[in-house]
Design brief:
Layout: H1 4-21, H2 26-33, H3 37-44, H4 52-62, H5 66-79, H6 94-104
Helix pairs in contact: 1-5, 2-3, 4-5
GO molecular function, one term: DNA binding
InterPro entries: Cro/C1-type_HTH, Lambda_DNA-bd_dom_sf
Protein name: XRE family transcriptional regulator
Length: 106
């Protein structure tokens, strides 16, 4: 199994590439979704777990359909998975949690 963090990185890369292919700026996409530019930026940099509903809305705006839509939504679901290390958020630092996440997928 691949680490959720690695899947978040892949999702972030794909979403950014799709947005750029369509010539849409981060600010414009954020306005269309009624979100802040920061929220879109965090999604495109894998700074947190993706909200699958937001990913669905982005794909709808970009006109992504069919198998590609299904593949990206599946990736978003897998990227949003919480691991055992998330229960120890209070006692583990962010670097320890990242290490546990990566190790989980090794």
């Amino acid at each position: 199994m691949v680490s959720p963090y690695v899947r978040r990185l892949k999702l972030a890369t794909e979403l950014r590439a799709l947005r750029e292919e369509h010539g849409i700026l981060t600010e414009d996409l954020a306005k269309r979704l009624y979100y802040s530019r920061t929220k879109i930026s965090r999604l495109e940099t894998a700074a947190g777990r993706p909200d699958v509903a937001v990913v669905m809305s982005i794909l709808d705006i970009l006109g992504v359909t069919g198998e590609e839509w299904e593949r990206i939504i599946r990736l978003a679901h897998e990227a949003a998975v919480k691991g055992w290390w998330d229960r120890y958020r209070q006692s583990m630092g962010p670097r320890q949690r990242l290490y546990a996440d990566l190790e989980f997928g090794a």
